[in-house]
Design a protein that fits this description.
Length: 331
């Protein structure tokens, strides 16, 4: 009985504390037409201290969405265009000699912000990518002999263009694994595109208002961790992740020679974190299997390595994740 009361109390608390989610969604909705999945993914990353890899053709409002999210939170936003000639110092900053002080002073780079949009991350060489990924992992930057903590919340949203592969440096698998979600952005519907055209032809383009402060996000992150997750849901997460490693043990024998490697322990961690954040966004104090299913593709699509056989048969990670969700028993 105590358990039921606790869930009820928790539900009420989460409903009260998650009110700002609707405010952020409403403000972003003034600027961004449609793209509900993208907005939810950005909020999940924000509430779980996770970084996001966005993939989509140019012109789908990836930059605008991130910029708008930053403007709803009273936070600093940096957009860095990744190019083949970019150097790590252009990203993190460097030591500059000051003649006046006769000493070296630190000039901090654009990475010192709350939200970083790494535009076309695969256009830069490995050195620049690893400088960004160190900042993502360690939440600090080393310039000279000094280490500098980055502001909290610190969130990297990296974009990739799936069309052109010429002159790009694909992210190594170990680095891709550091991104909590890989979100694929599709084209808007016909009605949405009509609205987009109208908005862009209007006299004044809509803007989003600030609704919360960075400190509120840090507080919300602690509350997200309180969302209740039953042991059956934990088992469901483990079954999904383990079926990517040992498909024949879960009735998915056909993928035995298709999967080169499965999801790492980060996949399980991020599925659990993401499901709690998704429940929080839906104003619920407990996780249900639908929360796992809603984020599963985004968490797993970049964590399953395919063999040549899978590629020869045109089998994608999307197909495998969909099959796993259809095969693993839902609690």
């Amino acid at each position: 009985m105590a358990e039921t009361t606790n869930i009820k109390e928790l539900n009420e608390k989460i409903e009260k504390e998650s009110a700002f989610v609707d405010m952020i969604t409403m403000e972003i909705g003034k600027v961004i037409v449609g793209q509900r999945h993208l907005i939810e993914s950005l909020l999940i990353g924000l509430l779980t201290d996770g970084h996001i890899l966005l993939e989509g053709v140019p012109g789908l409002a990836k930059t605008l969405a991130v910029n708008t999210l930053a403007s709803t939170i009273d936070a600093k936003f940096s957009r860095i265009q990744f190019t083949p000639d970019l150097l790590p110092a252009d990203l993190i900053g460097t030591m500059i000699y000051s003649q006046k002080q006769e000493d070296f002073t630190v000039r901090k780079g654009p990475i010192f912000a709350h939200f970083i949009l790494a535009d076309e991350i695969n256009r830069s060489p490995a050195k620049v990518q690893s400088a960004l990924l160190e900042a993502m992992q360690e939440k600090q930057v080393t310039i000279g002999s000094e280490s500098y903590k980055l502001d909290q919340p610190f969130m990297v949203l990296a974009t990739q263009n799936p069309i052109e592969q010429e002159g790009t440096y694909p992210l190594p698998e170990a680095q891709v694994d550091r991104f909590m979600l890989k979100v694929i952005i599709g084209y808007p519907s016909r009605d949405e595109e009509k609205l987009i055209v109208r908005e862009n032809l209007a006299q004044v383009f809509p803007t989003a208002q600030k609704v919360i402060k960075p400190a509120d996000i840090l507080k919300a992150r602690n509350i997200v961790k309180e969302v209740y997750m039953d042991e059956k849901i934990e088992k469901y997460i483990l079954d999904i992740v383990f079926s990517t490693r040992y498909p024949d043990q879960y009735g998915l024998e056909k993928y035995r020679n298709m999967i080169q490697y499965g999801g790492s322990p980060r996949a399980s961690i991020y599925l659990a974190h993401g499901a709690k954040a998704y429940a929080f966004i839906k104003r619920r104090g407990y996780v249900i299997p639908e929360d796992i299913r809603a984020i599963c593709h985004d968490v797993l699509r970049h964590r399953i390595g395919l063999t040549y056989e899978a590629e020869a048969e045109n089998i994608t990670t999307e197909d495998i994740v969909t099959d796993i969700l259809n095969t693993i028993e839902v609690p």
